[in-house]
Amino acid sequence: MDLYPTHTRGGKLSVLPKETTDNFKELFATLPKLHANEWVSTPSFMDLCLLNPAFNEENLPELTHFLFCGEELTHQTAQNLHTRFPNGHIFNTYGPTETTVAVTQVEITEQVLNDYPRLPIGITKDDTKIVLLDDSLKEVAAGEAGEIVILGPSVSKGCI
Questions:
Q1: Is 147 domain-assigned?
Q2: Which residue has the higher pLDDT, 144 or 15?
Q3: 70 located within any domain
Q4: Continuous segment of H or E residues that includes residue 79
Q5: Can you give the residue ranges of the AMP-dependent synthetase/ligase domain (predicted)?
Q6: Which residues pair with 129 in a beta bridge?
Q7: How far is it, in rounded angstroms, from Cα 107 to Cα 89?
Q8: Domains identified in the chain, total number
Q9: Domain of 58?
Q10: Tens of pLDDT along 54-67?
C-alpha cells in the first residue's frame, strides 16, 4: 500500500530497512511480528522469500493480500504463492514511474493461471486510459506493437 491510502484507512505502513531485507534470518524473524495483511513487492523479491519453507499462511496468518509490480509476475511465482497461502489474494499491477501509482490490476486466480500463458497486467483504473501509439502518434490496431501511453490524473506533470 502507499502512504496516503494506508493512513486514510487507519492502517499502519511498515517499511523494512535494507539491512533487514538483506539478512534473511532477520527478515523471517521480523515478518511475523509485523502482523501485516498486505504485501507489496517485486515478484523476484517474493521468489527469494518463497525459498524459506516457513514463509506460509500457517506462520503468517494475517497476510492475505499480495500486490506485485515492477517486473513480470510469472506463473511459477503465482502458483507457489497460491500453494503457500491458499486463502490469499494475489494481484498483478502495472504502474510505471510516470504514474507514481499502479494504474492497472488483476487478481491472479486459478482461472487466470489456466487461461493465460503470460499473466495479464489487468484492467485500467476508471480514471485512466492506456493506448498504444505508433511513431506518428496514431493509435495502433489491436495486436500491433506500439508505445504505451497512459492518460489520466495519475500521470506526473511534465510527462508526455
A1: no
A2: 144
A3: yes
A4: helix 75-84
A5: 1-158
A6: 151
A7: 7
A8: 1
A9: 3-124
A10: 999 999 999 999 99
